[in-house]
Amino acid sequence: MRYFPLLLLFISFLAAKTPLENTTCKACHPIIFAEYQHSQHAKASIWNDPVHKAVWDKHPNKEQGKYTCAKCHTPSDHSLKGGRGVPAGNTVQKDEPISCQGCHRIESIEEHVHANRNVIQAKPKYFYSADAKRKGEKVIFHETSSFFGLFKKTTGSPYHDIDYGNDLFYTGKMCLGCHDHKQNGKGFALCDLGVKQGDSNATCISCHMPQKPGTMVNLKHTATHASHDMTIHRGTLAELSRYIKLSLKPASQGFTITLHNEATHTLFAQPLRVAQLRVSIHRDGKTTVLPPRQYVRVIGTQGKPSMPWLADTVLKDTSIKALETREEHFDTVLKKGDKVEIVLGYYLVNPKVAGKLGLEGDVSTAFRVLTKKVVEF
Ligand code: HEC
Ligand code: HEC
Ligand code: HEC
Ligand code: HEC
Ligand code: HEC
Fold first, then answer.
1. Which atom of ligand 4 is nearest to the CA of 224?
2. Number of helices (H) and strands (E), helices first, in the chain?
């Protein structure tokens, strides 16, 4: 027993030293690294996402010691692979649950009914990326020297190879191993992003990873880089407002608001969300708030809403689908001089469910505005 404290010290030393893959990337890609740290991909485990944790804490798999969420929420911690064990709180889970390599080594996506699966490239230090000008190239690091080694010329990255030939990184389909759909244990589709490309040229990458100022790497200056800050709900929401078009036109009885969704997926597809269209009319110094229209997908069993693992039916689905145009009619007759304020927003967690999950505070009380428009009549 004398050695026990020493053993503990040794174990905590080991835990503190769990090497993080992303630390290497940080040295050469500091801007992208900083954005990633802020993104929800860096916070996808139970340690940094209180909403995910709240659902996990109530999930029956927890008692069975099977963290089946790992495949999408914490794939970079290989010790949790295949739902083995529960997250114990190491640095991978806390700092890089979906590491840089967790995305850049996705070679292909296997489609399955229950949930898709990412097939990871076996070679280490071999990353896929997209650059339309270099499509198809494979950049293997090498040095060429001339004049008996006096002058050295290098190509590519001194740390890794780059493969510009993986189509999934151009179409955005590399996101769909995790994002497309997921069934629960009863074979019921809990969430389905409902992706539809239609005539749109936009991809997951063009909308969610727009080019922003700043070099993508230290060793070579580029004016812009693809943003890695995927933090809609706690950050970049306003940047997405341009993809939702709101308009108003008077109708014979009242007026109609048209909402066009340019996103190639269902809006707010995560089943905890609830979205609302709120309309208010300002007239003669007074404001009238009309009853909101609600967009929600309610899941449950035996005719009643339920927790996700129990659900086997869709009780109601008013969610706005990919590329859909939705019209809402209001029967208030507008007068000249009226100002109509239209707001499309949402609650991160349906306030009706939040209490049951033991969640409080702004996740369920803050109404987050995605887009808004004021029309003067
Ligand atoms: C020693 C510096 C260095 C380190 C460390 C490094 N990179 Fe790079 N990386 C580069 C350079 C330089 C380029 C640009 C190569 C070029 O354009 O030919 C690059 C390019 C890339 C690209 C492709 C960019 C494109 O053109 O689309 C990706 C993806 C990438 N790195 C990912 C990573 C990841 C992930 C890590 C950590 C595991 C990492 N890098 C670590 C130097 C580095
Ligand atoms: C097939 C991949 C996949 C699996 C497996 C998975 N999830 Fe998720 N989960 C996602 C994705 C992708 C999102 C982000 C969806 C979005 O924002 O629309 C997400 C989001 C969530 C959210 C909402 C988080 C928030 O901040 O609002 C909760 C809660 C959640 N998952 C719980 C779980 C639990 C609990 C498990 C395991 C029992 C699990 N998930 C398994 C892919 C998965
Ligand atoms: C035309 C632009 C556009 C394209 C293309 C697009 N999105 Fe979105 N996405 C949006 C907008 C706008 C929102 C905000 C509304 C919302 O949260 O649903 C959003 C939200 C999301 C969310 C958060 C949903 C939530 O409520 O938690 C995820 C996850 C997401 N998109 C993933 C994807 C993936 C994966 C693809 C590729 C299949 C994709 N997006 C393609 C515009 C786009
Ligand atoms: C969620 C998946 C995902 C994660 C996590 C991720 N990347 Fe990327 N990354 C991509 C995709 C997709 C592209 C291609 C973007 C494009 O076409 O412009 C990309 C592009 C890049 C590029 C090229 C940027 C440019 O402007 O062309 C570099 C460098 C890079 N990533 C490095 C990293 C590093 C370093 C990390 C971790 C700190 C990281 N990535 C994490 C998906 C990811
Ligand atoms: C390895 C699985 C995985 C891959 C690959 C992946 N994601 Fe995610 N993503 C997740 C999970 C899990 C979450 C939810 C994390 C949470 O909130 O707990 C998420 C969250 C998001 C969100 C919501 C951010 C927010 O504010 O809550 C967006 C947007 C998103 N991902 C876009 C993308 C795009 C675009 C790609 C492809 C370039 C991509 N993801 C690739 C697993 C993945």
1. 26
2. 13, 22
Distance in Å, CA 217 to ligand 1 centroid: 7
Residue nearest to atom 2 of ligand 1 (CA): 28
Reported pTM: 0.95
| pLDDT band with cut points at 50, 70 and 90 for residue 313 | very high
Q: Where are the domains of the chain?
A: 237-376
Query: pLDDT by residue (tens digit) across 266-303?
Result: 999 999 999 999 999 999 999 999 999 999 999 999 99
Radius of gyration of the chain (CA): 24
- The owner of tokens 């009885």 is 253
Rounded to whole angstroms, the Cα distance separating 43 from 59 reads 19
Q: Which ligand is nearest to the CA of 160?
A: 1
- Specify the CATH architecture of the domain 237-376: Sandwich (2.60)
Q: Could you tell me the end-to-end alpha-carbon distance of the chain, in angstroms, rounded to an integer?
A: 81
- Angstrom CA distances, 237 to 8, 117, 226, stand at 44, 28, 17
Q: Looking at ligand 1, which residue's alpha carbon is closest to its atom 19?
A: 157
Secondary structure element (H or E) that encloses residue 364, with its range: helix 362-365
Using the atom order of ligand 5, give the atom closest to the CA of residue 209: 35
DSSP code of 6? H
Q: Which ligand gives the minimal distance to the CA of 220?
A: 1
46 or 251, which is more confident?
A: 46
Decide: 297 in ligand 3 pocket, CB within 6 A: no
Distance 314 CA to ligand 4 centre (A): 36
Task: Read off the tokens for 27.
Answer: 């040295």
Burial class (CB in 10 A: 0-12, 13-18, 19+), 201: exposed
| For ligand 2, mutation pick of 48, 182, 357 (most atoms within 8 Å of CB) | 182
Q: Is the pLDDT of residue 16 over 90?
A: no
Measured in angstroms, how far is the CA atom of residue 16 from the centroid of ligand 5? Answer: 27
Ligand nearest to the CA of 359: 2
- Cα–Cα nearest to 17, from 75, 98, 92: 92
